[in-house]
Amino acid sequence: MSSGATPIVEARDISKRYGSVAALTDVSTSVSAGEVTCVLGDNGAGKSTFIKILAGFHRHDSGQLLLDGAPVEFSTPRDALDAGIATLYQDLALLPLMSVWRNFFLGREPTRWAWPLRRLDAATAKKNALEELRRLGINLRSVDQIVGSLSGGERQSVAIARAIHFGARVIILDEPTAALGVKQSAIVLRNVIEARDRGLGLVLITHNPRHAYLVGDRFLVLSLGRSLGEFAKSETSERHLTELMAGGAEFTELQAELEAAPARGAARGAP
Predict the structure, then answer these.
(1) Which domain does 259 fall in, by range?
(2) Cα distance between residue 34 and residue 155, in whole Å
(3) What is the DSSP string of 185-248?
(4) In this structure, are 100 and 194 located in the same domain?
(5) pLDDT tens across 56-74, in order?
(6) Under a CB-based contact definition with an 8 Å cutoff, are residues 155 and 98 in contact?
(7) Structural contact between residues 136 and 160, judged by C-beta atoms closer than 8 angstroms
(8) pLDDT one-digit tens code per residue, 147-195
(9) Are 260 and 206 in a shared domain?
């Protein structure tokens, strides 16, 4: 993103309460074209509430949500999707017993001819799905294979490519590597970079600081619904993010204790 450019989406002092429980308090960050904003925190940090506000599932109680610099409120997920904000949850909304190309166009299939002779244009659907996947660097054996036969990383790839094809400007990824192994996680992170390099803004929700630091340009760390800080990559490190998530000084003390443990064990075993 060029310096001084207006973010696609910006949250300013967003707060959300559920009765007497403060789920978010004065949380701010931004999502710019060609950048990855990582939102980090352990379970209960407020990550889910925050992305549901960005995605139109919940409305914030105070603060401002801006789209291209103008205040906006999403009443439904469709409002957010129409604004170009696509959210990919862990279940991905893919049907495992249907083919890749049918999942790619689910509910929005290309057709040919006019009513009452309108028919599904399967050839165009397969061609477009294959081209979009290849543009993202994804080479499947066939778009006719069922989604259930794909690896976790490949399913994430299909969902990302589908969002791009249908005009997403911002893609929110909810813990995309949480249930994946090392190789499959690498596939997803590579797809994040590919999408960023195509000029999209991405929000990566994660509790894994290593994955975040590999691909992130901006980092927001949450704890109990509050921001522990927002940092550009040049202002932080993977270790710093880990320490913030783990409790700062308490984590440093624990790490020192664990590093000293082998030395103490060796000393006890010495003749």
Answers:
(1) 238-271
(2) 23
(3) HHHHHHHHHHHHHTT-EEEEEES-HHHHHHH-SEEEEEETTEEEEEEEGGG--HHHHHHHHHTT
(4) yes
(5) 999 999 999 999 999 999 9
(6) no
(7) yes
(8) 999 888 888 889 999 999 999 999 999 999 888 889 889 989 999 999 9
(9) no
Gap between the Cα atoms of 8 and 161, Å rounded: 20
Predicted confidence (pLDDT) at residue 2 exceeds the cutoff of 50:
no
Nearest-angstrom CA–CA distance, 44 and 48: 8
β-strand partners of 201:
170
Taking alpha carbons only, the member of 215, 203, 210 closest to residue 241 is 210
255 and 226 in one domain?
no
- Assess if residue 2 is contained within a domain: no
Q: Which of 156, 161, 160, 125 is nearest to 143 (CA)?
A: 125
* C-alpha span between 73 and 78 (Å, rounded): 12
24 close to 54: Cβ distance less than 8 angstroms = no
E strand or H helix that includes residue 86: strand 85-88
**Residue 108: inside a domain:** yes
SS3 call for 25: strand
Of 40, 6, 14, 37, nearest to 215 by C-alpha is 37
- Alpha-carbon gap, residue 16 to 60, rounded angstroms: 5
CA dihedral 217, 182, 139, 171 (to 10 degrees): -30
The owner of tokens 């909810």 is 174
**Using the 8-state DSSP alphabet, how is residue 74 labeled?**
-
Can you tell me which residue has the tokens 């911002």? 170
- Rg (C-alpha) for the chain, rounded Å, is 21
pLDDT tens-place string over residues 92-144: 778 889 999 999 998 787 787 777 767 888 999 999 999 988 888 788 888 99
The model's pTM: 0.84
